[in-house]
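=== Structure Prediction Worksheet ===
Name of assembly: unnamed complex
Input type: mixed (protein and possibly other molecules)
Chain count: two
Listed entries:
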Amino acid sequence: GAVVSQHPSWVICKSGTSVKIECRSLDFQATTMFWYRQFPKQSLMLMATSNEGSKATYEQGVEKDKFLINHASLTLSTLTVTSAHPEDSSFYICSARDNAALNTEAFFGQGTRLTVV
Amino acid sequence: GQQLNQSPQSMFIQEGEDVSMNCTSSSIFNTWLWYKQDPGEGPVLLIALYKAGELTSNGRLTAQFGITRKDSFLNISASIPSDVGIYFCAGQPINTGTASKLTFGTGTRLQVTL
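=== Predicted Assembly ===
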């Protein structure tokens, strides 16, 4: 299957600082990527849909000014958690769909564990 | 956001036993996907289903897309220790076009004992 790479795998930051997480599709182009958040022992919750060359679409309850998304190329989307606080600590996962694929299955990155202290 | 109802929530089974889990929704879905997630990792796609009634196998895994398009099940035969993990169903609702916006199930945590 297609490969999606996320970086970093984990990050610890101080409260009030910003953290950027990258999501790359390594062997395919993706017009659309998705960002999820997962709390311990819970399912994945979609935060936003990242659209190449245009603004991201945020799910209800997700603050767009706090979770900045940039999708500047067909292979890269970034999520920046601004002014991070301990309650932002979570597992963040991106996914992407191959533009050229006829099906609609999405492939996931390995996730980024964010700990805000 | 919306979640799919997945059951059971967790199960402990012995190596060699068969496992069955299912996912139900009040909405109709175009596509059903089954993922496995290991601790600290992203979900890995196991099986994808695209047509109502479709039955698809991947090794010891078999999944079906319910005829009503509101449910799906996943079976694992002859479980082995590496089957341990969390299994998620995911569905793509109708009218999301090619955006592939998925709704995830609540997960089934599988533990396999020797």
